[in-house]
Structures are given as C-alpha cells and as structure tokens.
Amino acid sequence: MTTPYVLVLYYSRNGSVSEMARQIARGIEQAGLEARLRTVPAISTECEAVAPSIPDEGALYASLDDLKNCSGLALGSPTRFGNMAAPLKYFLDGTSNLWLTGALVGKPAGVFTSTASLHGGQETTLMSMLLPLLHHGMLITGLPYSEQALLDTQGGGTPYGASHHAGPDGKRMLDQHEITLCRALGLRLANTALLLENGRGQKA
C-alpha cells in the first residue's frame, strides 16, 4: 500500500502556477502528508511535435496512476480566455477509465489559477476546473472566509480556490495574502484527506 499523498497537478507556462503549486505543497506538508508535484506536457497543433518523456526542469509529468492513487488533488492552471489551459484539459480528457471505475469518488479536491490581469477570468477558470472533478465524484474544498487573507487580499484569492495576479508581463511575484491562501488550500486539502482516510469504511 502506498503512503498517502495529495497530488498537486498543474500546468504552468511562465512559472506563476508552479510557484503556487510549491506553496500549496507546503500547506499539505504542514498537515503531515506528502505533496506529490506533477505537471503535464504542452500540446501542439503539429502532429509530429513530441515532448521528452521527462521534463528538462521542474516536476515530472503526471501519470494516471498518480491520480488514481492519490488521497486528494490540487489542480492548477493559468487562465486561457476564462478557461483552463488546453494541456491540462487534454490530460483530464484522458481520465475516462478512472471515471468508469469510480477511482476518484469521495476524494477531496481543490483548484488554483493565475492570470495576467486582476479580472482576467480567475473565477471562471477555477469553475472550469471544478466541473470535471465534480463528474469524477470528488469532494470540493474551496477557501472559506474564515481565512482572513481572503478578506484582506489586494491581488488574487477567491472562495472557489487560490488565485494569483501575475501582472501584464507575468512577473509579479505572489504577495503574502496569495501565499497564505495557497498554503491554506493545501492544509485544508490535506486535513480533509486525513479525516476521510481515518473514517473510511464507516457508513453514513
């Protein structure tokens, strides 16, 4: 039996989403669970374009087994016209077998995103990522307003999940409120996963 872990699965183009993933991982580890960071390869309109099997840098590419065996999931993507990025959608489109077998039913999941502009579709992107997770029967953990940073933030942060305002050039670093909310999401996911693991087998 594998050690319980929360999968932090993301696609990042300019580094903001990957930095969010690292902060979420810190929140997961704060609860005493392993955070497994995984990414997905870019996709191309050129049929012959093939990504290396191992990325040159950063997290490894995700496998379906990474997803199948996780105790919880944090899913992250930059915004693409108010929607998740195509590489992440492509990966999720290949999870039909996990849906057929109910492999993800009852597991906690949360989402996170980064945008170039403050109102560039953060909330719709988060919602677009939640839809396939709901189809998989996952339990959605957002960010409650008991998190003071959600009320104080001048940048990213939504009740639907963690978010970040990267700026027009994509170089704005995560501010303290955004970092706090990323870590809070990771901690909440991990704590929920632990509660569900400890209560597994009990009937409601």
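The record above closes out task 2.4. Task 2.5 opens with a second protein, given below.
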Amino acid sequence: MRIGLTGSIAAGKSTVSKRLAALGAHVLDADIVAREIVEPGTQSLFLLTEAFGPEILTPGGALNRGALAARVFGDADALKTLNAITHPLVVARMEELSMKWAAEHPKDVVVWDMALLIECGAWERMDAIWLVTANEKTRLARIMARDGCTREHALARMASQMPQEEKLRYASVVISNDGDETALYQQVDACYAAACMAVETPV
C-alpha cells in the first residue's frame, strides 16, 4: 500500500512522518530525494545550471542552495521553471524507490512524505492521501516560533501555498494536529493500524 502524506506549512507533517516510520512504515522523504537528485554530475543539476546560470553553483561545482533560492524568490516564472525541472525527477526517483521496496516487501506500507504531493500531481500515484491539518492561528504561531520570523513573513509563506481547504478535497484521511502530541499520535496509530489491516485483508 502506498500512502501520500502531505500538509500545509507547520501543520505537523514531519512529526506524523517520524511516527509512521517508528510504527514500521517505509517512509520516503521527498526533501531527501530532492537533495540527492541535484548532486554534482546529475541531470537535474545540469538542467538547473542551464536554466539559471553558473552562479547557482559553488566553486566546487555543487548546488548553492542559497543562490538558487535568491534567484527564484519573488519570481513566479523562475519558480515555475525550477519546479518543472525538479518535480518530475523527484517523483520518478521516488517511484523507482517505491517499486524496488514493494517488490521485496509487498505487504509493507510505503509512505511518500511530500509537501507538494498534490501540486506536483504525485497524488495520482497513491492508494491513499493523508492530510495533516491545523488551524491557521496554530500554524502561524508555530512558524513564528520555529523560524523566528515576523507575523507578516509567516503569513506570506502560508499564502504562497495551496490553501489547506483545497487540499482537503484530495484527502482520504485527515489527521488534525490542533492538540498535543499524544492526541496526534493516537490518530496516527489508529490510521496506520487500519492501513496495515487493509494490506493484510484486501477487498
């Protein structure tokens, strides 16, 4: 079974992902894969350099993430180009890793931990989509505390994403993270148990 795990910024997706891994799920982290596909010598890094110029590289030829972030910040077209290059390669690599794992562990639950699961179209590859939610006030406070940023900056980051309400349309499982960690874990544990049961007793 393949589960797509996603959520808006500061909803608590990473906490849920770690809990799922502790419960025995095989978790694939899109952020880790995204870093792997832009290592020196990769097709992705070559395409990024062609699109944005050699100034996005370090003197040693590795990707300078700060320079790339500065290049696309506030530039919708540049961000679109970046996503068009990296998203398909991330999805392809995660698909490859998923297929390999499933071939060796057919009854395991595989989780794609992916912030942009819906936006990049990867949701269509999932058996289930789990959305971690939290209300706007809670997420705003978490961003400000975590990143030490202003309220305005936190709101801008939230506004740059697909609205949580829209993501709800895609979700087959909704995990609410407005309470404490114990309440969150209770939901995750119950949902994971149900997923494992579905794998063991398919319809």
